[in-house]
Amino acid sequence: MIAGSRSKKGWLLGTCALAYSKSIENMELGHNISHGQWDWMNDPEIHSSTWEWDMVGHSAQWRYSHNYRHHVFSNVLGMDEDIGYRLLRVTPDQPWRPWYLVTPLRNLLLAATFEWGIALHGLHSERLRLDSSNSVAVEKRKFFGKATRQLAKDYVVLPALSTSRWRRTLAANVAANTLRNLWVYVNIICGHVPGGAETFDPAVVQDETPGEWYLRQMLGTANFEVSPLLARSGGHLCYQIEHHLFPDLPSIRLPQISVRVRELCEKFDLPYNSASLPRQLFRTQRIIHGLAIPDWLSSAGRRR
């Protein structure tokens, strides 16, 4: 195992490779397979109903909170719980609360432990969906069972296989998981929070036409520009607009259809929110931290 190498360069190379592979597994595979993008192949190894990803969260719990609540009710206040993940204030439409003053710490903690945020978010959605305590108890057991197995694999079994170099392997796994978490956080936050990404009142979903649903997906999302190598490691979610328009379309097609989507936006004078990754990341952090202080002291909402 390269991550257990005695040399510092070998350890660094192995850790970076491990972080990249974990990002691929989490985003290009886990996220996209769970959306059913490859179900048409009828291959049980990459089918949304059988895939279990390499992170603490239970994929079945995530599929309900993400595929249904987030994608169907995208950016609808009170219906899409991905808006701020109940931790961050990302729109002026969320009432300010005193605990938002510690947003810098909460934001950093969420980014570094994003897999736990996703896992707990999925469990929370299941608790809201289910109407019996027995069903909730079953989901809790699934959650704790998956988390226990994942922690044991990453931090006990794999380091033990490195025998005398277990400390280096343990450190590599911790570092790789943290890097993966940070990169997933960047992909998700830059696709939904940058200036110009809108939120909606629950009234909009009443009698909403298919055309209005597609328009809401476009207005509530944003793209960012990265190299093909980084795009693949993020599951091609740098094309978040296209992903929300066609969530079950195989991710490798998103770069192709983005050209057509941009042309249609220009033709019908619709916004196509896209910028470089540094630009979008800066805008997200400006909004998140600007909205952490009381409205009468902040102008972050007006800058959106």
TrEMBL record:
One GO CC annotation: membrane
Domain of life the protein comes from: Bacteria
Gene Ontology process terms (BP): lipid biosynthetic process
Molecular-function GO terms, alphabetical: oxidoreductase activity, acting on paired donors, with oxidation of a pair of donors resulting in the reduction of molecular oxygen to two molecules of water
Listed InterPro entries: FA_desaturase_dom, Fatty_acid_desaturase
Residue stretches making up the Fatty acid desaturase domain: 10-274
CDD domains for this protein: Delta6-FADS-like (cd03506)
Protein name: Fatty acid desaturase
Source organism: Mycolicibacterium sediminis
